[in-house]
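Can you give me the bound-state structure? Components:
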Amino acid sequence: MLTKRIIPCLDVKDGRTVKGVNFVNLRDAGDAVELGALYAAQGADELVYLDITATIDGRSTFIDLVRRVAQTVNIPFTVGGGISSIADVSALLHAGADKVSINSAAVRNPDLINELSLEFGSQCIVVAIDTRYIATEQGHEHVVHTHGGRKATEIRTIPWAKEVEERGAGEILLTSMDTDGTKAGFALELTSAISGNANIPVIASGGAGNMEHFYDVFTAGKADAGLAASIFHFREIDIPDLKGYLNEKGLPIRMTR
Amino acid sequence: MKTVIIKYNAGNVQSVMYALDRIGAGYIYTDDVEEIRSADKVIFPGVGEASTTMNYLRKVGLDKVIPSLKQPVFGTCIGMQLMCRFSEENNTECMGIFDVDVKRFPAEAGMKVPHMGWNNISNYASPLTYGVPDNAYVYFVHSFAPPVCDYTVASCQYATSFSAMLHRDNFYAAQFHCEISGDVGQQIMENFLKI
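Here's the bound-state model for the whole set.
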């Protein structure tokens, strides 16, 4: 049976993880490759590496990092952050990334989704959607945001999710800026509305604070995968414990030990 | 031992090379027919669309070379599909090593296509699954697959039962991605190299 995926996300700047990590057994807690390998060994189903470097020099550092991750890690990984062209995607895939995630560039130029999926295949094109529930002229609506969730667009989240699928996205990474960082649980209603209506997998992100939140997002939220960052980095939740818990609750989970 | 990875217009070959590096197996990445014929093992990997990749193989003549190979050949993902008779993906005539047609997953409520993620395989009957635990999880990304047939040596369930692995004579194939399927995938690759 196809399993629900647990995905740790690593924010990377200049080739190193930026959110603090406190894995005592890591030689270098900032080493993004070593941390990814540890998560893979613990049973993570995929990894996401998000480049938050702004400089040109940093971009080539990131590509070097992608290459080292691909050489080291034997599970799939997605890379994202600042990707805006076919050339960007080509460089990352050739370095060994399995999928790329595009966000602001897709909002600016939706045709990019079509172009990338034709060029590289839908299976490796993830569209990241950052969303926030805000006051609009219609009352309150879920609205797509860019610039790390700081800048509202004119685009409504639910129709945008359908549009990116129709344009050839292979997967959606849905981050609720309302729940992100709260540790109060994923945005279940919105995730369910999007994932329940999509024919492509949806990764839910933002708000995970305990193991039950993952159970909720896979059941009520209808998500195909759950992503989190700091709760894994700070070991508030251990991946083997989380997968054991979800498995005991009857969800299809890849148990590796 | 000489292992060749067949070079053609499919993507994602880099991951396969890194996986072989991790095993410590050397390889040559080439489309040279003599190099391919003289290899001890041939790997035919890739991600891509059936008609585009098949047209390329025809153009360079590899569509005739691959079925004529005598050494162990291991096709993965689109490589496996191209080794079948026909694919519903843009109605493509393939190489016919396995006499079975590749079909699109049926559209059913709640079954998303592509079939993407970790799913378990069962009913093993291949030297490639030696030492692999029953119902092991491997990583799939595909919208098309051959049904269970005479050549099926591992099956998987998603909306319907389909062939996760095929075997006929010296030809081996896997629909999933061994190179990113964790320890299980690595075991299967090592088993192929040991045949």
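A couple of observations. The interface with chain B takes residues 1-3, 5, 40, 45, 70-72, 74-76, 93-96, 98, 120-124, 170-171, 198-201, 224-225, 254, 256 of chain A (CB under 8 Å). Confidence is low (pLDDT under 50) at residues 20-24 of chain A.
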